[in-house]
Amino acid sequence: MLEGEQNLIKKAKEGDQASFGQLYDHYIAPLYRFVLMKVNDKAEAEDLTHEVFLSSWQNLKGYKFQGFPFSSWLYQIARNKVIDFYRTRKAYVSFENLDEDLLKVVGVSETNLEVTLAVETVKKALTKLTPEQQDVIAMKFIEDLSNDEIARNLGKSEGAVRLLQHRAISNLKEILASWKTE
Amino acid sequence: MEDRIIKILQSLKLIKPDEGFVSRSRNTVLNSPQNTRWVPNLNFLETLKFSAALTLASALLFVFLGGLAYFNVKNASPMLLSGVNDNDLKVEEANVDFQIQLGEVTYHLDSEKELGAQIEELIKNY
Question: Lower CB density within 10 Å: C or N end of chain B?
């Protein structure tokens, strides 16, 4: 959670662009990764992430603090955008479409094709999980949120989060194992 | 295998959005107008929740007790007034002089008129 977040939100609600700019800078990367893990397409992830922030800025006056972090509101908007995306565009995941940015950040060279494929395969397998399992995996391992933070973001108990995480990892193992045998 | 999956997942945290995209998106977002339409302040509904729950609970309790009283569930009904003494009622009942011997009242089910006449007669005598 960003320091002085409630104050920034208050000012942003009054139309202060600089305050919302700080919120934007803080949350853009995690939200982008969160969306990217769900759609597995860089251009779509950028469009959807932009829509999330645009929507949150435009509707900020309707935001009301109810004991949950501001990020939970953003993640909720992001989830809705992703649902709309799949509902309207019937997107598909292309295994051939390797994400160049991803390869760069994990330090994968063309010579290390095995690692490249492993990363891309896990990324593709993530899209086969249920939306809730994807949320937990993205928040836990990619965003490093604690179980308590994930629980508050998703409106679930910590026990439910642990269970979802366990099932998600098991499912990932099964999916990857089944692909290996194909 | 699980460790390897987790390691790969953790490596994904290094992904960052393109700087050009961030810059463009940030400017577009911040330069767009906020919705200025009036958002109703529904805070008062929060306080109404408790009163509404209380009212509903009271109404249900009233209906429940009414049901008990209707079916004459004497022992279970807390509607019975504690001030009413059973013994006093029995004494009062014994002292009442009805002047009517119920045994004399005969119901002639085949003739409503006759029954009506008898009841009228009884009222007059009473």
Answer: C
